[in-house]
Amino acid sequence: MDKKTILPLSKLDLHKKAKISHIKTEDKAMLGRIIAIGALPNIEVTLIQRFPSFVFQISKSQFAVDKELASCIYVKAV
Amino acid sequence: MIKRDYKGPVENSIEMAIEKISNLLRHDYYLSPRSIAILLLQEDEGIRNLVKEKDAADFNAIEQVVSGIKKYYKNPISYELAIERQDEVNEILKKTVRFAKDSISFQERLSRLVMNPLLGFPILLLVLYLGLYKFVGQFGAGTVVNFIEANIFDKYVTPFAEDMVLRFIPWQFLHELFVGEYGLITMAFRYAFAIILPITAFFFLVFSLIEDSGYLPRVAMLIDRTFKKIGLSGRAVIPMVLGFGCATMATMVTRILPTKRERLIATLLLALAVPCSAQLGVIMALLQHNPKAMVIWAGSILSIFLLVGYLTSKILPGDRPSFYMEIPPLRMPSLSNVIVKTYVRVKWYFKEIMPIFLWAGVLIWLARLAGLFDLLINLLKPPLRLIGLPPEASKAFLFGFFRRDYGAAGLYDLNAHGKLDGIQLVVSCVALTLFLPCIAQFLINIKERGWKTGLGISLFVLFFSFSAAYVLNIVLRTLGVAL
After folding, report:
1. What is the ipTM of this complex?
2. If you measure CA to CA, which chain B residue comes closest to A33?
3. Where are the alpha helices (DSSP H) in B116-151?
4. pTM, whole model, 2 decimals?
5. What is the rounded CA–CA span in Å between residue B9 and residue B383?
6. How many whole angstroms separate alpha carbon B217 and alpha carbon B227?
7. With contacts defined as CB-CB under 8 Å, which chain B residues touch A68?
C-alpha cells in the first residue's frame, strides 16, 4: 500500500497505525455520531477487527461501528 | 470535510458570532448565554425552540447571526467546534499526561477472544446457558420459586388471607375478587411476590454482572450484522436478552432504542418470538424427554424470529438503523455496585408491573362474573382443532395467557394422559411460545406503543401464532416425522 494513499477506515489493514484525514458524509446524524466518537481529522486510529463489525481504537478507547460509519472516516497510513 | 476550512473575514469568526448572540439573549436560561449561543450555532433543535419562545423579539436577529456565519464555513459549525475542542484537549494532554508504551494486556486478550468471529458465538451461548438457563432458570425460577410458593405462600399467606376475607367480607362474589382462583391476593400478589420477584431478582443479578463486566457491547458488536437484517442494530441486544427474563420488562427497555421504527420492531419480536423465562421453563419441562421435538421447536422459533423481523423491516418505512458503540475495557464487576443496581431495578420494575397485575386480576374477575371465560374457551376450540390439537387444550391456552403455571399444568395433564402425540406436543409448544405470553405484556404493549399499535401487535401475534402452528402441523404430518 502506498504510504500516501487515503482510504476509508473500512479498507485499512488490521493493526496498522493510520491518521484520520477527513470525514465524508452528507448525513448530519451520521456526522453527529462520528463527532460523538471523536473520530476527527489528525487523530491516530488503528483497526482491530472488521468482522462481524468494525472495531477500532482511538487513543485508549475502542469503538464498534457498522460498515456505513466506518466508510465515512477516511484515513492515511503513517 | 477537512479541518479549519474557514474562508471569511475575521468579524465572522465563531467567537464573534458567540458574542453577538450572547448580547441578543435577554432571558435567563439557567445555562450561561455563551453556552446557549454555542448550542444555537450547533443547531440544537431543543434550544432553538426554547429561545424562539423566550426571546421571541430578538429571535430573527439571532437566526441571522447563525445563518450568516454558516455561509463562511463549508463544514457544519458543530464539526468545526468539535475540532477546536479536540485541539485544545490534545494541547492539555501533551503537557500533562504521559502514556505507557502500548502492550496488549490480559484484559485486551480476553476482549479480543470474546469478540472473535469464530469463538465469540460459542462463548455467548455458554454465557447464556450458565447465566440464564442454569442460574436464573433452574435455580431461580425452579428451586427458589418452589421454595417460596410452598413454604411461604401455601403455608402462611394464602390461608391467612382466605381466613381474613371470609371473616370480614360477607358477599360471596367479592370473595372471588380477593381469594378466588384468580383473586388479587391468591393470584396477583402471589404471582408478583412468589414467582416474578425471585425470577426478576435473579435475572437482574446476572444481567448487572454481565453489564458491569463490559460484555454487552461486545455481544452487540457480534450480533449487529444479523440484527441489521431484521431492521435492528446491535444495540437491541439488550432488550432481546432481557426478553428471555421477562418480555414485559424488555418491552419497557426498548426505550433505549434510538428510533420509533426500531422500538416497534423490537416490541413485535418480543411479543411474538422471544420466550420469557416462565415460558421457557414450561417448554423445557414438556420437551425435555424428546430432543428431536426440542430441536424442531427451537428451529421453528428462531426461523420465525428472523423471518418476521426481516419482513417487518422491509414493510416499515424509515432509515436503516445505525450502529456505533463504545467498547469499554473488560472489568471485574464490583459486588456492591451489582447489588445496588439489582435492588434499584427490581424496585423500579415492581412499581411498573404491580398495577398491571392488579388490573389484570380485576379484569379476570369481571370476565368470569360475566361468563366471558367460557365464551373464550369455546371460541378457541375451532382454531385449535385446525392446528390439530384436542379441544381440551383450549383451557390450557386461555389460562396460559393469565396464569402460566395453570396453562402449563393443563398441557402437562393432557400430555400425561396420553392425549398429545409427539407432533401435537411440538405444535402446541410452538403455538404457546408465539402466543402472547401474558396479559401483563399485552397491557405494556398498549402503554408503550399506544393502544392502536399495541392492539395491532397483539392481534397480529394471535393470528400469526395459530397460522404458524397450522403450517407446522401440516408440514410435520405430510413429511411423516416421527416424534
Report:
1. 0.93
2. B324
3. 120-127, 145-148
4. 0.84
5. 76
6. 14
7. 320, 322
Residues of A with a Cβ under 8 Å from any B Cβ are 21-24, 28-33, 35-38, 40-43, 48-49, 51-53, 55, 59-66, 68-69
Whether residue B102 lies within 8 A of chain A, CB to CB, comes out as no
Listed as own residue / partner, the contacts of B234-238 with beta carbons closer than 8 Å and 24 or more positions apart are B234/A53, B234/A64, B234/B323, B234/B325, B235/B321, B235/B323, B235/B325, B236/B262, B236/B266
Nearest Cβ partner for B221 among A29, A33, A55: A55
Cβ <8 Å between A32 and B78: yes
Q: What is the mean pLDDT of each run of 10 residues along chain B (483 residues)?
A: 55 84 90 93 92 92 91 88 90 90 87 95 92 82 86 89 88 83 80 80 90 95 95 93 83 91 96 83 78 93 96 92 95 96 88 78 83 86 89 80 62 77 90 81 89 93 92 93 84
B225 touches chain A (CB under 8 A): yes
Contact (CB, 8 A) for B219 and B124: yes
Q: Provide the domain count of chain B.
A: 3
User: Could you tell me if B336 and B204 lie in one domain?
Assistant: yes
**SS3 category, B447:** helix
Which of B17, B214, B26 is CA-nearest to residue B111?
Answer: B214
Q: Residue B71 sits in a domain of what CATH number?
A: 1.10.287.1770
Among B353, B372, B403, where does a domain finish? B353
User: In Å, how far is A63's CA from the nearest CA of chain B?
Assistant: 4
Q: Are B212 and B333 in contact (CB under 8 A)?
A: yes
Q: Is residue B154 part of a domain?
A: yes
Put simply, the answer to whether A29 touches B322 (Cβ < 8 Å) is yes
Same domain for B404 and B441, yes or no, is yes
Q: Which helix (H) or strand (E) holds A15?
A: none
Query: What residue numbers bound the domain in which B30 lies?
Result: 10-96
Contact A69 B76 (CB under 8 A): no
Cell of A28: 448530519
Half-sphere CA count of B352, side-chain side, radius 13 A: 19
Strand partners, A23: A73
Rounded Cα gap, residues B269 and B243, in angstroms: 10
State how far the Cα of B197 lies from the Cα of B188, in Å rounded to an integer: 12
